[in-house]
Amino acid sequence: MRKVMNMHIEKVFGETDEATRGKTMESLYHEDVTWLQPAEYSGDQAIIRGRDYVNATIQKEQNHFPGFFITHDNEGYVAVTQNLGIVHWQLGPREQPDMIKACHYLLFEDGRIKAFWTTHLKMPTGQPSA
Questions:
Q1: pLDDT for the residue numbered 126
Q2: What pLDDT shows up at residue 130?
Q3: pLDDT score for 44
Q4: Residue 124, burial from CB neighbour count under 10 angstroms (0-12, 13-18, 19+)
Q5: Contact 100, 91 (CB under 8 A)
Q6: What pLDDT, on a 0 to 100 scale, did the predictor assign at position 78?
Q7: pTM here?
Q8: What CA–CA distance (Å, rounded) separates 57 from 34?
Q9: What's the pLDDT at 112?
């Protein structure tokens, strides 16, 4: 699970090419994966279902934040208990890589991600939402 979680950050959310990301996602996520985003995006909790829609949403967010890079947070926090994983990450430009801090809670089924939730831990005030 830890390997999948690291790839989730590095090879999926960190990948800028949509086709490459989509290919990587095939082995990591169930086809009907569900991504639940926090309410600050639209005022309502956004629910994205399916690998293709998750991939397209990641691309949309990358386009919204050009020059930003996702990395594991400074502590590299990854935790696993039974079929639940938690991975902390940060997002920002190279000069301030921790501008945004968040974590993903990942629910695994048969070794692949079935669903995941985003929780923001640090957001700059006045930050435009994706």
A1: 60
A2: 47
A3: 58
A4: exposed
A5: yes
A6: 85
A7: 0.89
A8: 12
A9: 98
Task: Provide the residue ranges of all domains of the chain, joining segments of one domain with +.
Answer: 2-122
Fold of 2-122: Nuclear Transport Factor 2; Chain: A, (3.10.450)
Does the CA dihedral 112-38-91-103 come out positive or negative?
negative
Given a contact cutoff of 8 angstroms between Cβ atoms, the answer to whether 25 and 15 are in contact is no
Residue 21 neighbours by CB distance under 10 Å: 20
Look-up: residue for tokens 């949509």? 18
C-alpha 33/C-alpha 112 separation (Å) is 9
Please name which of 66, 68, 76 lies closest in space to residue 99, comparing C-alpha atoms: 68
Mean pLDDT by 10 residues, the chain (130 residues): 95 97 98 89 75 96 94 81 96 94 97 96 68
**Dihedral of the CA atoms 24, 37, 120, 111 (nearest 10)?**
-40
Phi-psi region of 119 (alpha: psi -120 to 50; beta: other; left: phi over 0): beta
